[in-house]
Amino acid sequence: MALTVMHVSHGAAGGAGRAARRAHRASRAAGVLSAFAFIDGEATEPGDILLRPRPPEDAAEAALATALHDRVQWGLVQSARSAATNTLFSIAHPALALDRQALFAAADVLHLHWSTWAVAPSALQAWLAAGRAVVWTLHDMWPMTGGCHYPAGCEQYRTACLRCPQLADAWSLVPNAFAEKRAAWSAPGPVVVAPSSWMAARAAESAILRGCRIEVIPNPIDTDLFAPRADRDGLRAAWGLGPRDLLLVAGAHDNREARKGGALLAAALQALAADGRLAAVLPPGAQVALAGFGRSALPEVPGMRRLDFGEVTQDDVLADILAAADLACIPSIEDNYPNVAVEAMACGTPCVATPVGGLPELVREGSSGILATAAGADALAEALRRFAAHHHGDAAMRARARTQAEVENATGVIGARLATLYRDLAGEGRDITPAAHDRALGAFARAPVAVAAVPGAEFLRFPTNLMLREAGGAAVASVRAPAAQASAAGALRVMALRAQHGHHGAQSGPWQFLRHLPPGVDAALRATPLGAGLAGTQADAWRSWGRLLGTAPFGQQGNAWLAEADLLAECAAEGFDVLHAIDGELALWLLPHVPAALFQGGQRPAMAATFHQPPALLAGMVNAAMLRALDAVVVLCEAQRAALSRHLPAERLHVIPHGIDSGFFTPGPRATGDGFRLLAVGHWLRDFDTLFATFAALRAAGLDARLRIVSPNPPRGVPPGVQVEGGLTDEALRAAYRDADALLLPLHDATANNAILEAMACGRPVVATDVGGVADMTDSAARLAPPGDARSMADAVLALAADPAAAAALGAEARARAEALDWRHIAARHAALYAALAEARA
């Protein structure tokens, strides 16, 4: 009896491909009848299956596959990348319909690795629905995100990827991809194998994989091939290096990938070369050399000898390089379980590494290497100096590194663990001989596999669907999307529609509460880009319809009308309990007036809208007759409720305040700086005249005030000495709050205000204008001045500057108030409203 296992990866090269092949070899060594299938690479070993994509025969599906590959993955996605990171960002399509391939149908266990573009979500969904044994090794985080392979500090994968910091996503590719993955493999899910405990923890906290069984099994290494070299000194001598020289080695599949830390290592080495700290601890006359490998060269380090090996494709050559080195440098900014660390240690070469991802599990301080205290140039430089001073030539450390790899990563060790997992999932297998298995594999070694061109229904949501029709031409419009996955029985179904505002980051925006709705509420979110770009040549027609219906200019945007038309089509096919326009000023004019017969089951969902603008602006934005068609109106403050009460009965008006992510915006480290530092953030309804007058009054009073303005739309007439900037990341904006002594924010009007809430959550004192809903929001945890009163604002700032204890107390009170407005509490209030609306509808 023997188990048959199909390992599958997109490629056979790269870190994940090499790890996948080694898992396949380890499985075979443990007596498992294993095969290794891939698209990119050459079939060179027993059990290799080169997957050959066969384009769709249907013309419409072929056009869709081309649009997804050429126009979306290698067109839109690449052009829309932000500067957050240059690590690959990928959609899942087009991929292969491996559920239709005979070897995959016959295998006892399907073991996925880096399977982007290889395994279609629909194939995995079909396997799981059929009860197949599926194992998925996480070589990165893509299976649990909306498209990033490493999140660059973003934690949206824990809830939902709604606003991506890595992609300017006008088409909702990211939230739609996240929803598709969640529907395809979250329940029932695969058995997740994490090479590191760090990655296992990320999976366990993710919204997609948290319900899966998760096992920690490290990547294997061939400890016979990757082993110490008896002729190590001879190798070094051939490269012009003596026994006392310090040979560092570093490299990655592509050293241009920022997260691999090549620039960080260069900065650390440059600092050591400049100040002589490294040379000072080496034997007299010893030189320092850096051996680099990978698709691109590491950055130059002046004064340091370089050995540039280029792209090393043979493991025995790589083992020679690693074994000859004194130290392997792994300066990652983000990483999971890099192969090079295990490879180096198996060769008896210790590592120096940053304390990120799974590296602290691999590189053990003083035992198998040196761990830097932080992922920074100074900390890495000190770790390198510490190694040179205490462990250069340390035979005992080299032996410990080798032993660690033998005990924890050897092919036999990991093969046995994988075989145990496979048997736990699929039993003892069937009566198949290895010879028969290899002959069966050979028959399919180059057989074609159909391309799966049609994404899941969740991916083909608005506005991705419109973009694909435009990108793929008329044929794509005829492709029928699959049916959406049914919601859990008894779940309250909510459809939320929001506008895409450019100034909202991944941690801000009035729709953030949707991440935190309690179990039992199934919420879908659709996003509408502002303007009429989606309407194309029909934009004027939509605007004319808006004028005919009496909507204000905000309601004449073609994109908004198209969104409602698309939502109507969804509601005709699926039943929703509540439709909620998160930006009521910009949506939900059409659907409340549509006959109930057009909705699924002839039942109209309850309709709700949230309004954000102050009463003076709302008067010109809402149509009273349309307002009365809503079942509920949510406002952020009492001033709005009073203004709208003449249009709606009290029971249909609900005050639910704006919230804040108090887990992201937190008090934290503060950079040093001169003067009393004031911060102003934003542009909408900001009173810059009063801001500048207040700043002048503070300077006139003798306060060394410094003013920093963060705004996407900088004001005119900025006084000398005022710093103005825009385009900050969420992390940089948080740092700006933390670095300020106070937020100074004069306003013309307001209901809620993100800047005030974010500053409060960061524990900063706030001085603002007492208008609209500001007093409701701050609840005594801020100093408020009358509108336009620069003198009162200046007095409030001067009082804070003169009494640091009082300023600290106000900051602590502000933090407490922000915690009371955390999105989790706001989500609970929305959930209660949804439940009440659904009950009334029933």
Automatic annotation (TrEMBL):
The keyword Transferase applies. It comes from the Bacteria. Keywords: Glycosyltransferase, Transferase. Residues 96-224, 557-661 form the Glycosyltransferase subfamily 4-like N-terminal domain. InterPro entries: Glyco_trans_4-like_N. This is Glycosyltransferase subfamily 4-like N-terminal domain-containing protein. It comes from Roseomonas fluvialis.
